[in-house]
C-alpha cells in the first residue's frame, strides 16, 4: 500500500492556513498550538470566541471543556495546573470564563493562588459553582473577599453537618444566586433577611431556607 506524502500545512500562506485551521475541532486547536510559534500565532489571530472555558477543581462534574483536577494535588501541582490554564486562555484569547467549579475542601493557600490568577487574567466569570461539606464558610468568604472581578451567576450547594454562621453580605452581589441546604431539618441559616434586603440580586433561589412567613412578607414589601 502506498504511503501518503506528508501534508506541509505550516508552509501554506497565512490566509490559506487560517482557512484550514477554522475547520478544526476544539481540542485540535490546542494540539495545533503546540507545534510551533507560527501555529500559535495563527490561532491567536483567529480569536476563537465561539468556545467557552470551564475550569474544574473537583473530581467529578457533569460537563467540562478542559478538566483540570487539582483538589487532591499539592501546591506544586496546582501551580502547574494554573500554568496550563493560562496557556489555554492565551491561545483562545479568553478574557472571560464560562464556568468555575470549586470545592470547599480546598485549602486557603490554594484558593488564594487561584484567585490571584483570576484577578490577573480574567475580566468576568459567567457561572461559579461551589459545593462541599462546609461548616464555617471560611473558604467561600475567602474566595469572595479576594476576588476582584464580577460573577454573573453563583450556585452554592453546601452539605453542612453543623450550623454555619451567617456569611458576609457580599454573598449576594450577583445577578443570579441559588443556594441549597440539606433538608427541612437543616435549613439554610447562613443567608439572612438582612442579606436579601441589601442585595441587588435579580434572581434568588433558596432551597430549605430558615426564612419565616413574616420574613417573606418583609421581602415582598421592602425588597
UniProtKB/TrEMBL annotation:
Domain F-box: 6-52
InterPro entries tied to this protein: F-box_dom
Cross-referenced PANTHER family: F-BOX ASSOCIATED DOMAIN-CONTAINING PROTEIN-RELATED, F-BOX-CONTAINING HYPOTHETICAL PROTEIN C.ELEGANS
Listed name of the protein: F-box domain-containing protein
Originating species: Caenorhabditis remanei (Caenorhabditis vulgaris)
